[in-house]
Amino acid sequence: MAIRNEPEEIRNAPRKSTDDARQAVAPHTLRYMLAIGLVGVIVAFAIIYFVFV
């Protein structure tokens, strides 16, 4: 193994594969939260546009 100029805490950090690192389950309500947030931002920008233009 090559010697790297990394701090010791980085060299000794636990390594995980990409599959192990994303072992979370997104709740089914996540899509609704994202949709409501997107609609909210669009409505907010529309209000700002019509008030100031």
Cα Rg: 22 Å
Strand content: under 5%
Tell me about the biggest sheet? none
Structural class comes to: mainly alpha
Tell me, what's the shape? Answer: elongated
Q: How many individual β-strands? A: 0
List low-pLDDT spans: none
Explained architecture:
- The chain contains three helices and no strands.
- The chain is an all-alpha fold and 53 residues long.
- The longest helix has 23 residues, at 30-52.
- The mean pLDDT is 83.
List the SSEs and their pairings.
Elements: H1 8-11, H2 18-21, H3 30-52
Summarize the structure.
The chain is mainly alpha-helical and 53 residues long. The protein is built from 3 helices and no strands.
Core attributes:
elongated, transmembrane, transmembrane helix, membrane
